[in-house]
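Re-run with default settings, no changes from the original entry. Doing this only to confirm the output is reproducible before filing.
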Amino acid sequence: MPMIFNSHSHIHRFESAAVFGIIALEILHIFDEFIINGTKHFQNGPLLDLILQFGIGLMLGLRYFPILAIFEQENTYENRLANIICYGLASIYLYCEIIFKLQSDINCRLDERKKSMIKEILTKFHQMGINFIDYLGTNRTSQLNDTYQNTQVWFNHQIEQHLINSTYDDQNEVENDLNRLNYSLELNRQSIVYNTLRYAPYYYFIVFLAVRLTVMFLNTFRNTIQHKNLLYKSSPRWKYVRYNLLKSSTNEISTNPNDYSHLFRFLNYLIYFFKKNIYSIRPYFRYSKLIVCIYTSALTLIYYFTFWIQDHTYVLTKKLLLFLNLILCALADLSKDLCYNLNLNHINRDIKYICLLTAFITCIQLFFGLKHYQTQMCNAYRGIFHDIPTAKQISSITIVSKSMHYPGRFMVIFFARLDYSPYGRGLEMYDSSYASYVSFFHIEKNQRHPVLNVFIDIIRQRLIDIRKLKSKLTIEKIRRTYEQDKFTQIQRFRWALAYTLIRNEQLRRYRKHRLPSHKIPQSKTLEKIFDKIGLTQTLTRKY
């Protein structure tokens, strides 16, 4: 499975994990359809069916690939318009998906599988002599609403009469059909709660993505209107690591148990036990995006298959027992009624309990695998490698090539502990799943080492400060050079003017500050005329 995103990134890792969970559920729905109703689909030949499956898987990936790509693009001020459009369209798409999914789950007419199941069960009852449709008549809706209790009493009476003269296996089959019919109609509180819990992961993932994209859309739109660029300036990537690695002893917080209240001492003890033995929170460690996505898909797989086995336990158990009965009857001269003497209700109940216990144990193994991964990674940061080969024992080409993907069998065969290989110490690198895990582990160690990243972050910040200082000095130097050149030009002009006036004394009277002081005497005739008129005019000489 090739990676279409930065698998070592920590940005939007939970959003990407939600997208992977939705894709895993969609693929599992296809698996459910082809396992239960395989005879209806595998009729065109294996090659055409295989091509069809690849096409369906590709379409499912293309449906949610834009959502995954949105979280990979940079949320900068320059890309604000493109981000607003992407966030808005993705939110509308997800809300429409939620509405259509709710309508599909609530309206039984849209679910062809439930419809075919109801028809199958009613046909089976009709063959047994319980004709439910003929009893209701032509106007079935009003008849059922008016005489609901009478119809239920009649139906229960017919079932009891039929079960009196039936075999033990037929009784179990009728009871199982009634339970399936009850769940298919979804008319009681138990079935509603059951179906709500069954589809809870899908609704959780898609609602989480829709709300997250809506919040991102509103924040980007608000920042665009207010012309603010402050929120786009994110803090350094390793700010939390830098703080915890470089902080002084004066900033350490006291963890004395006597500081806590006695009322919460037991709760504090549980929290301390959880952090010490189950999961310890370390400020300099974060799970990468690929690890979160894979373990989310694995937990979704376990959750879905638990409900899938709960739904199809009776059918699968009966088919398996009939198959074993045929084998035993063929190998040994045993009775043909061997499997009919078994209590299928007890077997189904035991299988359900075993399924729930297996799911619980597998989830615990997944969490222990996460904790072991954290412990191994933190030890690898210090140069300590336990239960994992060092990078010197593996070629660089193998590490780079196998770290780009994970085998899909981790999500298919329930390999909950990916950090162990069933082949043993000598042959563990021949296991493709374990080899991919080790390769990804070493790439993760090299790219996300906290001390290395803090050092790189300090150097990067220092380079940014130097560039800012150089830019500031360059601007000041340019301004100072401009002022100096301007002053030099003025001084040169003044010296040239002084030299010109010294060599040409007749030009001094043409200076602007000398012109008003040089009055030229005017004609006495004109002066007398102006005195008689009552005007006093002094005419300047025109040169």
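The two ends are 96 Å apart (CA to CA). The first helix runs from residue 13 to 36.
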